[in-house]
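pasting for the record
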Amino acid sequence: MNAIGATQTRQGARPWLAHYPPAVPPQLEEERIGTLAELIQTACATHAGRPAFESFGKTITFAETLRAAQAFGGWLQAKGFKQGDRIALMMPNILAYPATLFGALLGGYTIVNVNPLYTARELAHQLNDAGARVLVVMENFAHTVEEAKPHLKLDAVVVASAGDLMGLKGRIVNFVARRIKKVVRPFHLPDAVELRHILRHGEPMKPVTVSAGDIAFLQYTGGTTGVAKGATLTHRNVAANVQQSGLWLEWMLEPPLGRAEYQHVMVTALPLYHIFALTCCCMFMLRIGAKSLLIANPRDIPGFIKTLKGSRFTLFSGVNTLYNALANHPQIKEVDFSEMRFAVAGGMATQAAVAKHWKAVTGRPIIEGYGLSETSPVATINRPDIQEFTGTIGFPIPSTDIAIRDADGNDMPLGAAGEICIRGPQVMAGYWNRPDETARAMTADGFFRSGDIGVMLPDGQVKIVDRMKDMVLVSGFNVYPNEVEDVLASHPGVLEAAVIGLPDEHSGEAVTAFVVRKDQTLTADALRAFCKENLTGYKVPKQVFFRETLPKTNVGKVLRRALREEIVVRQ
């Protein structure tokens, strides 16, 4: 057996291993990692007749997904695109996404995932930085491509629709979107090809050899804090993370006795272009033969709940803001959570008040995990058999080392705060064409520097403190926004809260809170008084601003940077 991760960290003997579930081994077997192309082919052959994806009430099987993928891959080959060429996907969670994703991966192409809400400027930067040759875009966002086109170097644009792969039902879905709801804006891309034409008339796909070291994704990150850069993820990186997740979770996913036909269903509300959903809701679901219930617009909470009320599901994934919005909706009590095995959260810190409310509504705790685009993404996760929310991000998963280090690279003692550093087969190969950024992010002994502050507890669990860049310095004291936000969110009159630091002539920086109220009679003075009961003085917000909403990414992560910029503009 060739196991990965056999070396010790400088922090000691990996205390987390003593607290692993009995069924979970400490390491992966390297020879079993394989590629994503192999994963796709194996899953689609093994589960050919099973439902694979559902969107707008239409379900397609694994076999149907594979046929569509091969048609798209065959079209790319026929057009002369070579292995390694970058293929960009700019779509929400619709059936066209997995079809084009799988087709490109089977053909040995590199996927560039694009947020469909990008502006023309952001789109041009990412596609040009990646050197993308093909862009597949949902028609709802094609007007952005038209605006950016003078600055792009694409060889082909493919336009997809919500109704692709749905047959007659798809025509109805498209008619409603275009004519009745008018969510598709006019655009002019005369040389674009319709995906439905490719899927109907695509040429046979020629088999290719895909290697573990080939680049599967350029996963762009950092867009919320600066210019986005592409994390280079190989087939081995992501396939290893799928297998790591499997070792950690699959023992909890056994079918009920006597139900061999039992199939898990993952509620896939986070966009597949985000690394969390990509690995955990798409690739991992392939591994276990599960169906993904695709939610195209999770911000439409009433529509989302309507879908849940009419669906059977066993697994759930989300971020703090999504769980909060669902748990606070009056119709959530009409949703049947009886078959749900667990709900997983990532992408941002989960607040204790939100987790408590979710458990009260659904009967299941939130299992929190942690990772980044650069780690494919999962690095740590709670045990899936927890009965209550832990407030930690769990244990390092198999073949993963976590070190907590100071600014000079020294290991911190257990319980002391420092930067979370990660080493394992899921860590990226580097940043695309950014050797300087790669050098800054990686240590000499192979750890990725996350930029997150955390502590390791005596049992090896890790607790997030905050982002290094978001820390507020008040008169020389560190204030972590996550802690203050947790306190604010626990007030019964608060729906959401965000905390930032603003310049202050007396203390250097001042803690500033932005709050969305449940109770419209709540005042800033009352909220500050509540904080004084739960926080030491310098952590109490000096100012409280009430807002109707908080700025968020399309995944639901609160944009603290946007709040800072808003205040600067006001001043």
